């Protein structure tokens, strides 16, 4: 099967689960603990030898397994393990692969929380990270040492929207016997990293996948061996660090997942419309769907085209003061909310330098091109994007950035 025959939304559509009374949605397991008729089965279940039996909800629950299966189907991996948040999926996975003395090569433009974890937290455990420009493969390869265990990147990076060449990075990882871990939070459905050779695909479900900004969630998609290791009661990082998802949330995220394909198409077409308008108005606009984007051709090559270039775009309005003035005005006119996060039906905007990427020291922000006047937009599901554009343009003229 060529990578372009992979149909992630079909895989979600084709899953079929029924509830206890023939309900069209699976029943939610509203229990933290489970009874056993025999004490022997309880022991076997604890040791992981009694398939289909549940013991305790930090270990696994039917609802969490349904959601995990659906996400594994979406990414085309053997299986998956859901977590209470994106960080609750990312941090145990990294810790499962690395121990004291090991080394990580990471993209320097990644989510602020992941950056802080690798920069400030894992060194306490003797794990060091080199941060590199992930778009420069020679630089990535040069950073690999005999101690390196993983390469970490985001498909579409936060907040600069750089595009990682997953196929090339997977080849590099294979050559050096490393694991390629990819955070696909910004580009669900649009990019299928496992089909391009990534070993592990991570998501914050909090963003596009759930899409209603009402819950946190995360997932690790990978092979059975990895997921079993993460869940091992004796030394599994997901099991022991305890960021397990609650069943009620797993059930609600599964329901939202079913409309992800429609939402991504709308986020993408709205974002492309605005990006083209902003760019032709003369604003410094970054969007992977624009020909001016350095990763445009690469993204076209590796994407599932029907879902578009995603819902995230940035503009640079010159200074933090202007950015703040514009965001406050846009919020006042109900064009969106001044809020972090992404994937909501309303447009969300924030200045990453002073919010979601503030963990990155200022001089490093400058080096990677993260400027003060940068505004990150998560474009909403607006039914009338032309009206939105006209009102945004009005705001931009009023604050003097156009
Ligand atoms: C939000 C986000 C995370 C962290 O997820 P949480 O659900 O907030 O823990 C990780 N990576 C990316 C790219 C994100 O946007």
UniProtKB/TrEMBL annotation:
<protein>
    <submittedName>
        <fullName>Methionine-gamma-lyase</fullName>
    </submittedName>
</protein>
<dbReference type="InterPro" id="IPR015422">
    <property type="entry name" value="PyrdxlP-dep_Trfase_small"/>
</dbReference>
<dbReference type="InterPro" id="IPR015424">
    <property type="entry name" value="PyrdxlP-dep_Trfase"/>
</dbReference>
<dbReference type="GO" id="GO:0030170">
    <property type="term" value="F:pyridoxal phosphate binding"/>
</dbReference>
<dbReference type="GO" id="GO:0016846">
    <property type="term" value="F:carbon-sulfur lyase activity"/>
</dbReference>
<comment type="similarity">
    <text>Belongs to the trans-sulfuration enzymes family.</text>
</comment>
<dbReference type="GO" id="GO:0019346">
    <property type="term" value="P:transsulfuration"/>
</dbReference>
<dbReference type="InterPro" id="IPR000277">
    <property type="entry name" value="Cys/Met-Metab_PyrdxlP-dep_enz"/>
</dbReference>
<keyword id="KW-0456">Lyase</keyword>
<feature type="modified residue" description="N6-(pyridoxal phosphate)lysine">
    <location>
        <position position="207"/>
    </location>
</feature>
<dbReference type="InterPro" id="IPR015421">
    <property type="entry name" value="PyrdxlP-dep_Trfase_major"/>
</dbReference>
<dbReference type="GO" id="GO:0005737">
    <property type="term" value="C:cytoplasm"/>
</dbReference>
<keyword id="KW-0663">Pyridoxal phosphate</keyword>
<dbReference type="Pfam" id="PF01053">
    <property type="entry name" value="Cys_Met_Meta_PP"/>
</dbReference>
